[in-house]
Each structure stands twice: as C-alpha cells, then as structure tokens.
Structure prediction request, 423 residues.
Amino acid sequence: RDEPDEAWEMMLSWNVTDSVANQDQDPDYRIQGVVYADDVWIISGSNGSRNTENYFYIFDRWGNYFGRVVQPFEGYGAYDMEYYNGDLYCTANDNNIYKVNQANGEILASYSLPRGIPEVRTIAIDPATGYIYTGASINRLYRLELTNDSLSINNSYVTNDPRSYESIRRYGIAWFRDDPDGFNLYMFSNIELVADPEHPNISIFKMNPNTDEIRFVTDLAYLDPGCRGRGGIFITPKWNNLVWAFAAVIDNPDGDIVGVFELAPNSSWIDYSPRSDTLIAGESQQIDILINTADLDTGMYGVVIEFTHNAAGSVTNIPVDLQITTLSAPVEVTLPLEYALEQNYPNPFNPATSIEYSLREANFTELTIFDIMGREVVNLVQENQPAGRYRVTFDGGTFPTGLYFYQIKSGQFTSVRKMLLMK
Prediction:
C-alpha cells in the first residue's frame, strides 16, 4: 500500500457466538482465547461453563466457520492460548500449562506450576528465548523457564496501571517481537480509567520485561460501549504479510467477538545481528542481515534500519527494499524439472482435498495416507507411473477429524507433508 493504515484500525471482526449458533449448535456465550495457526483461527469456548463438552472452534482466514474440535478441558475450558513451535499452549482452570495438538485436541504434555504460583489464566511465549509469561488475572505476572519438562520461576512482575497505580486485571497477554520501544509483552484488560456509559471497558498495556516499566497503549474508544476486554489476545505477522495483527476476544452482551487490529508494519521477514556492539576508533563490524521470504505474498516490502552511534552523534538510515515476484513458467511443459510433492488444497479440508505431485522419471509410485499415530489409512496410488504431473483426490468423509500425513515414494524420491481434516 502507498499509505499504511493507522495503528489499531480494525481490519476484521466477527461474532463467534452467532457463528457457532448458525451451525445448529448451542450458542457459546463465553469465548476465551484466540490464536492464528496454519492459516486458520483457533478459538476456545467454554459453553458458559455448563457441564458439557468444550470446543476449539476453527475459522478460516476471513472468519468463516470451518468446524470444531473437542477440548480436553472441563469447566471453563482453555483460557488464554499461545502458538509456539507448531503446538498450541493453553491455560485452564487448574495449576497446569498444557501443550495441545490443535488438530484433534489431544494433550501432548502438561507442566505443573512452580510452588508459589496460585493459578494461571494468561500465557505468552517469547519465541527467541522460550520464556513463558503467565499468571492469574490479578496479582503477580511470572516469567517461567521450561527445562527438562519442569517449570521454574525466572522472574516476576507487579503489573499496575501507570495511570492509576491500581493492579491491572489481565485477561490476555501476547508477545510482540518488533515493538519499537522494547515493550514486547502486551496485556488486555477490562479496566476503564473513568466510568463512561458511552465508552467500552477496554485497556491495552505493554510492558518492558527487562525494566518492568508499563505503558498504557490504547482503549479502543471507537468500539461499541458494550464491549469489554475479558478475553485472550494473540499477535502474529502470519495473517497479513504487510502488518502485525493484534487479535482479541472481546466480551459483548450480543455475543462474543473476535477483533483483528493493525498493530504495526510487518518487518518479521528481516532480522539482523548484532543488534549492538562497542567499537574503538579504526575498528569495523560486519552486520549480517537475514531475509526470509517463505511466508510472503508477492509485492513490495521495505524497512529502514537505523544505526545510532555516539561517535557520529547522529542516526544513519539504511533502507532495505524487497520485491517478491512469481516466476512465469512456460505454457507447455513436457517434463517436470524435479520431483515434488505439493501441499494439498484446500487445507484444512472437509471432506475432500487434492494432492499434486511431479515425477522426474518413470518408476513404481506409492502415495499413502497415515494418521497421527503413523498408521496407514489408505493407499491412493500404487502403480508404475511415467514421468509427469499428477493430481489425486483424497475423500476424508469416512475418517475422523484430525491431522493426517501423506507420503510419496517413487524410486529414490520420498517426501511427506501434513494436512488437516476438519468436520
């Protein structure tokens, strides 16, 4: 875009309670947490804490209902959530942090809290260090270190509102790597500094975990006055290549809402090191810049790296521009250049999906589907095939919701990918 949108502009919102009810299901009036993972929104509900099953509700990129997965938690279900290293991390209504398979709701691991922490509700993880930030809605916030499947306290924080010095009631926290001030931990609260019936009960804060300083960021004053900040949050650069997106579960009497807001321009595709150094006159320092285009759409991207050095007494600006293009292939291709197994489409899918692959040479070829336990589900291809491009349809109508793997073997070529069946 020629002109970036302003921070905290709402880019997407939808009523989760109504979306669930429109699927001939009981409306869920107590939505808890939200994450964006593998091109879908995963949202935790609690069915109003009734003694029934709780669900992870799945929505596509634009908030269209896709399906649901049974949660492994009773009571209020999963509270705040985090997505880290391909797994879902949840807090629930006991003294544990859980790692969960988001495809089928299976608990992969549980971690007991260190002594002295009464309960947890919120969770955020620093991807660079693996530190886990968690705590109850009030009282101290803790930084935990996970070593050999055991949690230990690394630090703790008193989180007071800098406007009133009263304790912040935290319902969601999230980590923002690229905060320009180094205040990487964001907090979502239902605090309203001055009671106003025309104003939503929402406050967003950010904290510098190295200095403990907290700043008020915004109160999203333009939202409906019935809105309250009583849900989880998640910050991601994956939803929109151009911006960091701030997603929040917003409590509302007409049904709980997920709102997606623009937080800042997305520079997650670039990193550099060292971030700082000390040099004496005459010395030089190489700075390595890493550019990762794996998750970027076609288009123009740009950032400005600023160097501040006391010898010059000024700031040096170095612009970095990146153009992502799609290479055009010849209209007629007689043979593929390489062996390849493509990602199935659509993914997630219900009930059918297409799998494409390419063979460089003629050979006996097998295309097999496995479940998450590694058990063979079905063999789609088992025959001699000439070199060429192929497309096979997998119909999962008779199979349960979950994560599946598909593997191709042809001569010396072997490749495996995963796909998600959601019903």
Summary: Confidence is low (pLDDT under 50) at residues 327-336. The chain has one helix and 31 strands. The longest helix spans residues 16-21. Residues 98 and 110 are 4 Å apart (CA to CA).
